[in-house]
Amino acid sequence: MPICKKCGVEFKDTTSCPLCGAAVGESSCPEEKDEARPQPISSVASITKIWFWELFTFFVVATLIVVFTVDFAYGMKVTWSRYPLLSITFLWLTVCLIIFLTRHISQLLLCETLILGLYLWFLDMFMSVRPWFFPFALPLLLVTSLLFWGTYTFVNKINVKVTGILISCMISLGIFLVCLEIILNRFITGKIFVSWSVVAFACILPLTGFLLLFQKKMQKNGSHLKKIFHV
Amino acid sequence: MVYQNRGLEDWLKLDNAAKIYPAASPKRSPALFRIYAIMQEPVKLWIFKQALQRIMQRCPYYQVELKRGFFWFYLQRHSKIPEINLLEDIVLNKSIANPQNADLLQVNIKSSTIALDFSHIITDGSGGFRFLISLLAEYLRLSGVDIRHTEILLDPDSRPDPEEYEDPHLKSFQKHSLSPQKMTPAFHLYGHPHRTEKPRLITGQLPIEKVLRLTRNKGISITEYLVSLYIYCLVQIYHETIRWKKSRRSVIRLEVPVNMRKFSFPRVMRNFSLFISPEINLKLGRYSLPEIISIVHHSMQMQINDKELNRQISRNVGAELNPLIRFLPLFCKNLYLSGLYSKLGENPYSGVLSNLGRIELPPEMVEYIKLFNVIVYPNHVMKKSCSVISYQQEMLITFASIIESRELERLFFTQLVADGIPVFIREV
Predict the structure, then answer these.
(1) Antiparallel, parallel or unpaired: β B279-281 and B251-259
(2) Which residue stretches of chain A have pLDDT < 50?
(3) Structural contact between residues B34 and B131, judged by C-beta atoms closer than 8 angstroms
(4) Which long-range contacts (CB under 8 A, 24 or more apart) does A98-103 make?
(5) I want to staple B278 with a disulfide (CB 3.0 to 4.6 A). Which of B152, B221, B296, B403 is the partner?
(6) Which of B73, B236, B332, B425 to mutate to test the interface with A (most CBs of A within 10 A)?
(7) Strand (E) positions, chain A?
(8) Three-state secondary-structure class, residue B309
């Protein structure tokens, strides 16, 4: 079998080396033809958390300085800028929490409840109207957080399926509506009673029943729905 | 129905590794590989059909077709036996590039060659290889050869073990493990696309004893040596390339599959391979071959560790179980997965080298099988793939390429010859 003098490899069925193209008996490899300029391969930009946080913080600080200066420069005191300053600070804290506590949902929820509570409390203090934080905003905030945390924990611990998650969310929504009406009525009229929220809750119940039935069908072996909607 | 007797549902979820393939540009870079065997004598078609039928029924998880669900693709089972096609030449059949319209396993025969084309959606190289040798064993049995049942061969009369088709990634998943380190984009080969639609194959045939002697002298494994050589060739091409094309990518990194069955779940017949990524950064200067061998050797020794490899499972399964991703409709998910595949599976790698290792068969089979080979369809970003398999006294190294340039192959095999290993070259 012929051996390429340049590459040193053996080959058969061809008259030239499959590697360098040299003919049998040729002493040197022909140069590879110049390649045309190839297409550049698009690079994938990666944005890290820290980079994003630093950039975001820079813009937040810049905005705070500008807003404060504009207000202070015209009256030598802080007036309207309290609202945007407070709101921007709240927004910054929220983004920080989302960036650094993404994997710790319980801690994220607790801290978010805390800073939202503080934000609303400060807003209440700045406003010269009837106090609304303690009788209205705080109970509503606590109910919302507790329901969210309860649903999340239930779904996570029990390891329910998709329909189970939907059912949990819908029941939580029903409870939330009832609590909302109670808190609202107590705040406006000073009395505790329910009306429309019970109707809404009653509408949710048949829907959850339908979902339960759907889940039962899905659990059947060979179910057509199960394979199409599996997650 | 056949499948009702085998204790499986009529559909299967894609395993964690397979989930990304239907979305990841199947037309440009089909996730395919071919495993073939050349027998000593021409194949007797009527016997082969019987053997195929028995083995297919033993492996119901390969009697499947890809279907779209609302959230994920799934595998719909059927009881069809794949048609046997005439093997045109030893080049991968791209007709299964679009997995939704084709069988995920195709059987091709010509004369004494039996070639199986697998889509990575159903299995990886080790699973496919076990299927092939079980098929060959059954074929030989039906031809009158006495082949004893061993652990490596699937018994057509037995029932499939759930371990064979259950997703091993989910079973190995540890929730709070670390994700693997992020990888920067790597240098890629440039070049004109190949003239034909089919990839060009260059196979080098080497005496395994000489390769073993060489690697033992160096105190490294065969895979480490071949990976080092591959990187060394890419280094030379890199230095040649940057003379006319400025490249900001100075990292040369190879994707080297590791068969996870060595660590756990040895009977898995679906995908169960992870990757190690030996690399060098050319910003640090020029590297000689001995330097590269040393770096690759130590890097691979550190990376081939079940705990280290499980970090990839943590990342991949963690993403699959993420509620935001799970509830994303499939058409949105495909966009996301396509980008993810590009980021994690294509851009960080300059090439891929897959070594299936030395094939051990029952002694009764050896005299009937002349040769085994494996071909991995090259990715359009990496442009070339390298697959290695050893059988009896020979090792086959096959480069599949979608570009005209054969500089990498030339440098690779020339270096082997320079190291004292005779190489016989064949091109398709």
Answers:
(1) antiparallel
(2) 28-46
(3) no
(4) A99/A49, A99/A52, A99/A53, A100/A49, A100/A53
(5) B296
(6) B425
(7) 10-11
(8) helix
Quote the pLDDT of residue A104: 83
Least confident of A86-90, B120-124, B343-347: B343-347
Q: Residue B76 and residue A173: Cα distance in Å, rounded?
A: 37
In this structure, what token pair is assigned to residue A193? 């009673």
**What DSSP element (H or E) covers A166?**
helix A162-189
Give chain A positions within 8 Å (CB) of B76. Answer: 227
Q: Distance (Å) from the C-alpha of residue B267 to the closest C-alpha of chain A?
A: 25
At residue B249, φ and ψ (nearest 5 deg) are -90, 110
Question: What does the buried/exposed string (b/e) look like for A4-18 if buried means 16 or more CB atoms within 10 Å of the residue's CB?
Answer: bebbbbbbeeeeebb
Answer whether B279's CB lies under 8 Å from B146's CB: no
Here the ipTM equals 0.73
In sequence order, the 6+-apart residues with CB closer than 8 A to the CB of A33 are none
Q: What is the DSSP string of A99-161?
A: HHSTT-HHHHHHHHHHHHHHHHHHHHHHS-SS--IIIIIHHHHHHHHHHHHHHHHHHHHHT--
Which of A47-56, B21-30, B157-166, B269-278 has the least mean pLDDT?
B21-30
Q: How far apart are CA B83 and CA B62, in angstroms?
A: 14
* CB within 8 Å: B185 and A221: no
In which element (H, E) is residue B48 found?
A: helix B45-58
Q: Is the CB of residue A55 less than 8 Å away from at least one CB of chain B?
A: no
Residue of B nearest to A104 (CA): B176
Residues 6 or more apart in contact with residue B328 via CB below 8 angstroms: B71, B336
Contact flag A222-B71 (C-beta cutoff 8 Å): no
**Alpha carbon A31 to chain centroid, angstroms:** 55
Residue in chain A closest to B201 (alpha carbons) equals: A18
